[in-house]
Design brief:
- By secondary structure, this protein is an alpha+beta fold.
- The protein has two domains: 2-65 and 178-314, no CATH class; 78-165, no CATH class.
- It contains nine helices and seven strands; from the N terminus they run βββαβαβαβαβααααα.
- Keywords: Cell cycle, Cell division, Membrane, Transmembrane, Transmembrane helix.
Length: 315
């Protein structure tokens, strides 16, 4: 049994070949010709970019936390240079005798001066300077073989108190906690954007499917009279919108890759440690490659359920 209806004035065409064997077209098949593929391309591009941002932020936070989890900074706040130098040597000797110290390093004075030069200038604590010079605390970078818990910090303070009374101990993770909290908030925002874009994609497909159903109502009624089922009609819509979603998804992913690689190259030029640690790994690229596939599946399922629901009310 063969049924075909030619378009009167550009309207969608339905071709029906032997019911139950294979259905042809209920909606136009000119790929990438209507607005739907381009809407899906935009949605996929934005979703991939938001997902890449969330993954990069997550990588940066995870790497930074792992790096500074056992990091401790010992500051020697003694203003007199000779006493400060003596306390620094005594503190280093006391820390070396501790069993759970993985490593330590005294930060050179030149490195400290370079760190604060942009804010305080070059004449910070020059030898022979009079009165106006600002004494810079000595710093010891300590690495513990585990997390810097409050108990371990208290134990270090007890060890250093007799030999370096001006010593102040801080966990490096506590300094960056506000930064980590802000980055986690941005990651949650990126995930929320991905969810909202998926919802917007489903809504766009739903509207497109309803519009196509309204335009082909008479044809669908004839198909039912000839023995066609709701599932067969829904499969036609599902296939057509799936092809549109696949084409739009491929275009959207390509656009997203251009943006992601361009932005990644610019951030890579900064040479910042936390930025470098946020680079995408191969599993992240695999997730990005799955975005158009998942978008196509979402579009097809949305179209199918929308058509089946509408047909139950229509007939």
């Amino acid at each position: 049994m063969i049924f075909a209806k030619a378009p009167a004035d550009g309207a969608p065409r339905l071709g029906w070949r032997r019911l139950g064997v294979r259905s042809a077209e209920l909606v136009p098949q000119a790929r990438m010709a209507g607005p739907m593929p381009w809407v899906i391309a935009i949605m996929v591009a934005l979703t991939a970019i938001a997902l890449a941002a969330g993954l990069a932020i997550g990588n940066a936070v995870t790497s930074a936390r792992a790096e500074i989890e056992g990091g401790v900074t010992v500051q020697l706040l003694e203003p007199r240079a000779d006493v400060r130098a003596r306390e620094t040597r005594a503190a280093i000797d006391a820390l070396k005798r501790q069993p759970r110290i993985a490593g330590l390093r005294q930060v050179p004075q030149a490195e400290l001066d370079a760190l604060i030069e942009p804010w305080l200038g070059t004449e910070i604590a020059a030898p022979g300077s009079t009165g106006s010079a600002i004494p810079v605390p000595a710093l010891i970078d300590v690495r513990l073989n585990g997390a810097a818990t409050p108990e371990r910090l208290k134990a270090l303070e007890t060890v250093l108190a007799p030999v370096a009374p001006s010593a102040r101990i801080d966990a490096q993770a506590s300094w960056l906690k506000p930064v980590f909290d802000a980055m986690v908030s941005l990651q949650v925002l990126a995930i929320a954007l991905v969810a909202l874009l998926a919802f917007a994609l489903a809504a766009a497909v739903l509207l497109a499917a309803r519009s196509a159903l309204g335009a082909n109502r008479e044809v669908i009624e004839i198909v039912h009279l000839l023995g066609g089922t709701d599932a067969q009609v829904a499969r036609v819509f599902q296939r057509s919108i799936g092809l549109d979603a696949a084409g739009g998804g491929a275009v959207g992913l390509a656009l997203a890759m251009v943006v992601i690689l361009s932005i990644g190259r610019r951030f890579g030029g900064l040479g910042a440690g936390m930025v470098d640690s946020g680079a995408l790994v191969w599993t992240d690229w695999l997730l990005l490659a799955l975005v158009p596939l998942l978008s196509t599946v979402l579009a097809m399922l949305t179209a199918r359920f929308t058509v089946l629901h509408a047909l139950r009310k229509m007939l």
